[in-house]
Amino acid sequence: MAKVKICGLKEEEHVLAAVEAGATWIGFMFAPSKRQISIDRAKELAKLVPPEVKTVGVFVNPTGQVVQHVVENVGLDYVQYHGSEEPAFIKQLGYPSIKAISIRSYEDVQNASCYDVDYYLFDAPGTDYAGGSGHVFEWSLLERLSIPRSRVLLAGGLNSDNVARAITQVAPFGVDVSSGVEKKGEKDSRLIKQFIEAAASTGVAK
Ligand SMILES: O=C(O)c1ccccc1N[C@@H]1O[C@H](COP(=O)(O)O)[C@@H](O)[C@H]1O
């Protein structure tokens, strides 16, 4: 069964809904976004997350000092780099990490392997912000992937209607969603539950 990351959470109710429904990762946004939260807010929300569920901080081209400060203050389990961070920068910081790769062409897929990270998050290119656009990219570009599927997370315009198809086609270890569990621009507990149920209904991570 594919694991699920619910990203861009700002309210207690939605953190609790994601945990209860079986999310594996809870994502907090620290980059410019309508979903961005403060360190203090993330600390409050992280207290609601049990140890078996992992917290992820999402950053876009941060300085090392900012990442260190947020990780240490919030107690994050993973750092998600969602900009054009260099492989050496991520490696030097040394945190358990997820690198988002924006997919426009097969060349982007090939370039992913220059990173030495825990997970490779394949996403559609951002529009207003670096991510969270709600757009789907061409999943067939991942057919000839050299990275093991056990390291692959899929994002970009996923929702409870398309996530089962995405898992069947791409066979990722996990899926990641933000806009697809929102109603009128805000997270919705019912949509979070529906998404996790839909992801659980199909596919086996290879
Ligand atoms: O969600 C955002 O606002 C965001 C801003 C800047 C970088 C990353 C962001 N979100 C990430 O993008 C994926 C895909 O989002 P969506 O499901 O297509 O809306 C999301 O899961 C976050 O990891």
From TrEMBL:
Belongs to the TrpF family. Residues 4-197 form the N-(5'phosphoribosyl) anthranilate isomerase (PRAI) domain. Its EC number is 5.3.1.24. The keyword S-adenosyl-L-methionine does not apply. Keywords: Amino-acid biosynthesis, Aromatic amino acid biosynthesis, Isomerase, Tryptophan biosynthesis. This is N-(5'-phosphoribosyl)anthranilate isomerase. CDD domains: PRAI (cd00405). It holds the Pfam family PRAI. The keyword Protease does not apply. InterPro entries: Aldolase_TIM, PRAI_dom, RibuloseP-bd_barrel, TrpF_fam.
